[in-house]
């Protein structure tokens, strides 16, 4: 009561309140969006990311860039979550989602400067988001598993702008063939059933589709066959070894006879395992655990090809490809558990042995073996192919696609501006701001291609005023065009997820008006400062 200060937080705690907290968070999130904005589109640039031990990653994939940047600012981390969610749920459109979220925050900051309350802004953004999702659904174009040409264009669009672009026609055909092989009866696809295996050697055009599974392991014994036709495959989740004693148990042997008996019994057990394999009719054994040297010897004598320490994820794919069952006990192995493949062979790829399980009857899992001149190239080919495969799978999940090249965003901006006219309060300003933010995508596409963004936006708006909602930007010629006819198309799910996750992340950031950093934690800005950042988040991103 005498003016004595009251401390309710521990010493060393930093607190940022009101507009300072909001501006700090918005500035941090916008810096993240600006970091990836130059990578957007076919003419986007790449980023070189060097970690603490000197490993280099060269990519223009938004999710990969943000993951490698090791961002620490709490609000900036929310933007990374936008990219991760987009990548996990759809596999493509990560940069679009982050750039859109950054522009929404920029527009929100302008509204905050006009003394519009954050709650009003978030309400307007929410209304605009719901309207945008409806518009996208309404204007989407249907697609099925039989529209091979359209599916190839989706794959090419996903790869355009990446290092794999020069081989995109060839790689797109492989991606579509792989998806067709593993498609469910209802036409949907689980992209995880398409395994991507990479080896740095040769060129991108040496990549191939294997109708089965490639296991990055070698045949365990030199005496085993390296090739098996009409393979009957045993998939084992148990060690072909004698179990070691657990705990403090010991075996006491006090005479040579007992020692010999012990050795004989161990060999009998191991021989019994081999006999069990032979009795089942298996001529290929793929084991998730170890295989004893003695077992290897007897399997080799029986003409059985075997590989050990196969990854669990590969075993799951092998069950889908060969139709076999993973057996947890060798004693339970029977003929009915075996899978089938027309051809199993150990081949050397880039100097390393790999086991190819191919020519399966009706494989529900396939492998795309990716090749490239160097490790960095093949890594980027893998990221491009992952975008392509997941983009096709996302298209078939909803069975709908939308035009690319900024066409969808210009259409949304125009429709949402019309929608804003039905509101009279301050929410109208927020809805209009949402519409303006949508145009950051075609604007960025134009800027990254070295075109005048104002001219190109004006041309796109004029075309859409004539109700031609498929008109997008051709960044190679600088002209506007029908994106669907030009083959620039994307999965509807990519746009739905980008709009949804970007809007929700923006709402969450705007609703924060108090940041309390515990003692020892890095504050989101200097005490009493405006817009300060922790190390690595400041200035013009030069520290990245």
Describe the structure.
By secondary structure, this protein is α+β, with helices and mostly antiparallel strands. The chain is 46% helix and 16% strand. Strands 7, 8, 9, 10, 11, 12 and 13 form a seven-stranded mixed β-sheet that branches. A three-stranded antiparallel β-sheet has the order 4-15-18. Strands 5-14-6 form a three-stranded mixed β-sheet. A hairpin with a 5-residue loop joins strand 2 and strand 3. Helix 4 (94-113) runs antiparallel to helix 13 and helix 14 (440-448) crosses helix 15. The longest helix has 25 residues, at 256-280. Residues 525-544 have low confidence and may be disordered.
Please provide a brief summary of the model.
With 544 residues, this protein is α+β, with helices and mostly antiparallel strands. The protein contains 16 helices and 19 strands.
């Amino acid at each position: 009561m005498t003016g004595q200060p009251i401390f309710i937080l521990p010493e060393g705690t930093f607190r940022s309140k009101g507009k300072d907290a909001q501006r700090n968070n918005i500035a941090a999130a916008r810096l993240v969006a600006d970091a990836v904005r130059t990578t957007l589109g076919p003419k986007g640039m790449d980023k070189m990311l060097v970690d603490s031990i000197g490993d280099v990653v060269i990519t223009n994939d938004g999710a990969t860039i943000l993951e490698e940047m090791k961002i620490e600012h709490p609000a900036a981390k929310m933007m990374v979550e936008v990219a991760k969610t987009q990548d996990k749920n759809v596999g493509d459109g990560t940069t679009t989602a982050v750039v859109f979220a950054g522009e929404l925050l920029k527009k929100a900051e302008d509204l905050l400067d006009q003394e519009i309350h954050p709650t009003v802004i978030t309400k307007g953004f929410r209304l605009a988001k719901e309207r945008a999702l409806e518009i996208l659904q309404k204007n989407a174009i249907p697609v099925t598993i039989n529209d091979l040409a359209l599916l190839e264009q989706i794959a090419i669009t996903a790869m355009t702008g990446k290092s794999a672009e020069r081989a995109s026609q060839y790689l797109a055909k492989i991606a579509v063939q792989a998806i067709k092989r593993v498609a469910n009866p209802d036409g949907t696809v689980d992209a995880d059933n398409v395994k991507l295996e990479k080896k740095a050697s040769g060129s991108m055009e040496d990549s191939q589709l294997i109708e089965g599974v490639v296991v990055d392991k070698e045949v365990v014994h030199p005496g085993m066959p390296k090739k098996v036709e009409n393979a009957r495959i045993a998939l084992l989740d148990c060690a072909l070894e004698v179990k070691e004693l657990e705990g403090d148990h010991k075996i006491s042997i006090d005479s040579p006879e007992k020692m010999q008996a012990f050795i004989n019994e161990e060999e009998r057990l191991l021989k019994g395992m081999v006999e069990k394999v032979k009795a089942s009719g298996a001529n290929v054994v793929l084991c998730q655990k170890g295989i004893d040297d003695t077992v290897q010897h007897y399997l080799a004598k029986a003409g059985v090809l075997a590989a050990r320490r196969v990854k669990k994820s590969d075993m799951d794919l092998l069950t889908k490809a060969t139709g076999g069952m993973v057996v947890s006990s060798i004693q339970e192995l029977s003929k009915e558990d075996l899978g089938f493949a027309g051809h199993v062979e150990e081949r050397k790829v880039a100097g390393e042995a790999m086991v190819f399980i191919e020519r399966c009857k009706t494989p529900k899992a396939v492998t795309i073996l990716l090749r490239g001149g160097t490790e960095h190239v093949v890594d980027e080919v893998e990221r491009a192919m992952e975008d392509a495969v997941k983009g096709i799978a996302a298209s078939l999940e909803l069975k709908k696609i939308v035009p690319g090249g900024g066409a969808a965003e210009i259409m949304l901006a125009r429709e949402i501006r019309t929608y804003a006219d039905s509101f009279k309060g301050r929410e109208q300003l927020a809805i209009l701001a949402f519409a303006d933010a949508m145009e950051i995508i075609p604007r960025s596409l134009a800027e990254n291609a070295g075109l005048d963004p104002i001219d190109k936006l004006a041309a796109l708006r004029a075309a859409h005023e004539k109700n031609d909602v498929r008109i997008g930007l051709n960044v190679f010629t600088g002209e506007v065009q029908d994106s669907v006819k030009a083959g620039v198309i994307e999965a509807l799910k990519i746009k739905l997820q980008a709009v949804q996750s970007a809007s929700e992340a923006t709402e969450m950031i705007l609703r924060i008006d108090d940041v309390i950093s515990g003692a020892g934690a890095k504050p989101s800005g200097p005490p009493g400062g405006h817009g300060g950042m922790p190390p690595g988040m400041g200035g013009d991103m030069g520290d990245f």
